[in-house]
Design a protein that fits this description.
The structure is a single chain. The protein is α+β, with helices and mostly antiparallel strands. It contains three helices and eight strands, in the order E-H-E-E-E-H-E-H-E-E-E. Strands 1, 2, 3, 4, 5, 6, 7 and 8 form an eight-stranded mixed sheet that branches. The chain is globular, with a radius of gyration of 14 Å. The protein starts with a strand and ends with a strand.
Length: 149
Amino acid sequence: MQLNWTLKRFEELSPAELYAIHRLRNEVFVVEQNCVYQDADDKDQPSWHLCGWNLDELVAYSRIIPPGLVYEECSVGRVVSSPAYRKTGAGRELMKTSIEKACSLFSTTTIKIGAQLYLQKFYGSLGFVQCSEQYLEDGIPHIAMILHK
């Protein structure tokens, strides 16, 4: 499967693209993870949105956040892949592309993320290292991780 990647600022997203993004985020973060939380956090507007499409279906998504908004460093968040495409490598391709785009957009070699604890090994395989104690976010264990390329 060859994904078609798009990277857009919030105001460049079409209503259909924005709907697909929120639908996928809700499907995984709210329904699958059984976590009721406020997804609309006012960080979408100043961020970049990376979408991996298989034809017209959104398969993978991340939000690339500028430095100073969440952390001093730029960040990648709301990382999500469709349950229908798990075990296809879409998540790894998403993160590799997210890292590349974040470094390019913000002329940096450092990215900090808030990772769900159960994904520590996955992010570690991409070069991220833990840089905080465990904390709860929306009732889910998380850790901060940082990448220095």
